[in-house]
Amino acid sequence: MTDQQTGAAAGDDAGRRSPLHDEHVALGANLTTFGGWLMPLRYTSDLAEHRAVREAAGLFDLSHMGEIEVAGPQAAAALDHALVGNLSAVAPGRARYTMICQEDGAVLDDLVVYRLAQERFLVVANAGNADLVARELVARAEGFDATVTDQGAETALVAVQGPRAEEIVAGLTDPADPAAAQAVRDLRYYAAVPLALRTDTGPVDALVARTGYTGEDGFELFVPADRAADLWRTTLAAGAPLGLVPAGLSARDSLRLEAGMPLYGHELDTTTTPYEAGLGRVVKLDKVEADGSPLEFVGRAALAARRTSEPARVLVGLQGLGRRPARAGYAVVLPDAEPGGAVGESARRVGTVTSGAPSPTLGHPIALAYVTPELSAEGTRLAVDVRGRAEPVVVVPLPFYRRPQQS
């Protein structure tokens, strides 16, 4: 799942406030505007929070994400029309990563959709796009027996991510109900189950989903906004002995970059189709109507044409061979200069970095970039113009990082 940053460090008057705002202030968080919200950038250090998620667990506030319910006898059909995925094929209790596209095939947002019941779905949108997605779903559901309801204001979302996430979340269930803890342990990836979780002020009803945006095992917990602080404090206290720490958006960004996950506004936007981003698998051109005829979902014709034509650019992973990291917006050029040498005026630009940073886990710079197709093969040597200096990079497979397999 993705977000879009819309500002830098901000004061208390900038952006909408999360239901957990006071908790972040009490923890001394550095706050930033993000997708129109005032959210924690970090609590201690980016590196410490990143490492905690890779080695133990991190607790994230994701309440800036949008939650939109689509319900009714034709809810599945409405979503099949509105989105590029085949949502009618999703079983109750499961989830699917998908996208909402324009008629020209460009990405308006990437989404996670949960099927809560046969006629009830929860669409989770990125913070900066939540209002747009809600409006689009209302418009695209017209003519279907389905109701679209924006539930973002009354819903909070927190995530527990890391190798010890399962142990921590299972420990939030009632000790007198061992079946609830087992339900957490048995939950499959991209699945969700309603459970009551413990807090110091009494149980809270939660939708517990095994999803995340860090490359680690993890859970996302949807709860009523007025109970979010209770759950946050209880989770922090219960998880602290296991290494759980609060983690901000900076760590979340470096974690998702290592995992090769796209960020809306960087790898995805309204100039990009799923195919260019290497996510053509989410586009289901084979969706059909009840009579077997092709289902004409929004953007289908354009996406079908794009599928059979070579893209002008391809998203790739870049490993830095030096020490200076590439950053979003930097030019990718042919390596016609000495490594670290000046980039000449005649240097041929062949792409653009969309995200880049030093990798705390891998120990070298990494980046995502769009390049021309003939330069997208693994092992291709390129360079990035880092403030006028040619920093050498090599195309590598994605993701950069995969979590170790559990024994």
From TrEMBL:
- Write the Enzyme Commission number(s) for this entry: 2.1.2.10
Group of enzyme by EC: transferase
> In this protein, which residues make up the domain named Aminomethyltransferase C-terminal?
313-401
Question: Which terms are listed as keywords in the entry?
Answer: Aminotransferase, Methyltransferase, Transferase
Q: Signal sequence: where?
A: none
Pfam families tied to this protein: GCV_T, GCV_T_C
Specify the protein name: Aminomethyltransferase
